[in-house]
Amino acid sequence: MANHSKLLVGALLCLFAGVSHAQAPGEAAIASPHPQATAAGREILQQGGNAFDAAIAVSAALAVVEPYGSGLGGGGFYLLRQAGEPVRYQFLDARERAPQKARADLYLKDGKLQPGLSINGPLAAAIPGVPAALVELAEHYGKLPLKNSLAPAIRLANQGFAVDRVYRERAIARLAALRDDPESARLFLHDGEVPAEGAVLRQPELAATLTQLGNQGRAGFYTGPVAKALVKGVQAAGGIWSLQDLADYKVATRAPLRFALVNQRELISAPPPSAGGVALAQSLGMLQQLPWREADPVQRVHYVIESLRRAYRDRGLLGDPDYVSNPVAQLLAPDYLKSLVTSFDPRQATPSAGLPPAPPWREGNHTTHFAILDEQGNAVAATLSVNLPFGSAFSAPGTGVVLNNEMDDFAADPNGSNSYGLAASPANAVAGGKRPLSSMSPSFIESPTQFAAFGTPGGSRIPSMVLLSMLQYLDGKPVSTWPAVPRYHHQYLPDVVEYEPGAFTQKQIDDLRLRGYPLKQTSRPYGNQQVLFWHKDTAKVEAASDPRGLGVSEVFRTAQ
Questions:
Q1: Catalytic residue among 38, 209, 367, 383
Q2: pTM
């Protein structure tokens, strides 16, 4: 077992005892990817709840209106800021865990990977963590009873919500898999087809499961009738869950990753089993040594890509800290980061093949993210997921819960030849009870005068998206530009720069190609970032939602 407390030891990481300021913003803010989720969080804050109660309300509402992105059948990470003197930070790891019967060759047949088994159906599902996280938030951080914070989502599930364009896009992408499962087809389709935009989708079974959770806490999901229905449905369809798997699930409370930045700023982000926080810290640590702010646009892109290339290369060294020792301190050591920067060519791309190899990975793109700040200065940045749209596309009959397919985030082939022809990471091999590696990166940057929160869905592109938004912040750009900034991405392998339509001018494309960068434009924009900003000196609070999505951000005072 790894010693979690050793993640942050030494001068390699920021060892601040906490930010010693007592200011409170006096306003609340919510940025979430769906108007109904933002409204649910606001309702709870106005009832006297704090940011942690509101996080429960937003998470549960997203389970209703975004079943393609998160839900009770999934998991995620909650980064918490507890106001006080000093400020305290906590990281709730609600990542799913592999069932105990899982083994390294679970998805192999005659030595060959069978990728469909880790993508569709109950064998692809790990034990969910979101319900346990909601209980943890209510019992240890919130002010209201859990059932109060779940009430908006229960009402929404019973009354229904209008299908929007994003729901349709995600359901169309997974239509065949949804049709293959009778319960999912009944819940999320109409006569085998994706519902029309504006059609009302009601989920009374999910409302009943949320009610059980609210009334009974952990027992309402992880033992008792709901647990029995989940296991019965999974086993009947060929899955390997047991009642003991559910009963044994617990949220892991971990020390956040903390890394010193210039100008008294500190990055507070996700530790393993997220690789995202490490990638952000490494990238920012490298860029701090470079004149990125003064550089022309193409030179700045060059610096960012080369930083990402090296940060993503190191991802394969990381895994579930309960099962493997993570060299976080070594990866963030000043001397190591300096050595990475000295390997940059000032003007030309460094081919990934010219760097020592590190194992790449695969990871689903469809998660969700939200951020909340209350009037006392408590804050939450949460990134949640079921992995691919609608997860495994398998729903346990009678529960209203669509299960994740996070088992696909493990290195499915221990021999190193998955369906993409990519090498597997031994640190991320399948094992019973283990949590798969993730790129989810809910993050804060805090200084004595400022507080900012960042995060987005987007699978392996999450760290690069969050980094670009952070650079907007560090460059003093308006909050509205942080989630709107054009996106590009490099993840070491494949050795190609992906970019959104319109991210670069034709001249910039030509210049990057002359520097040796292979370029590939994505078919559409990606990501759905939600950000918050609190300027403590002026007590000004701002929030912004990604213009690519349907999200709503609000800043308001409660009636308290």
A1: 367
A2: 0.93
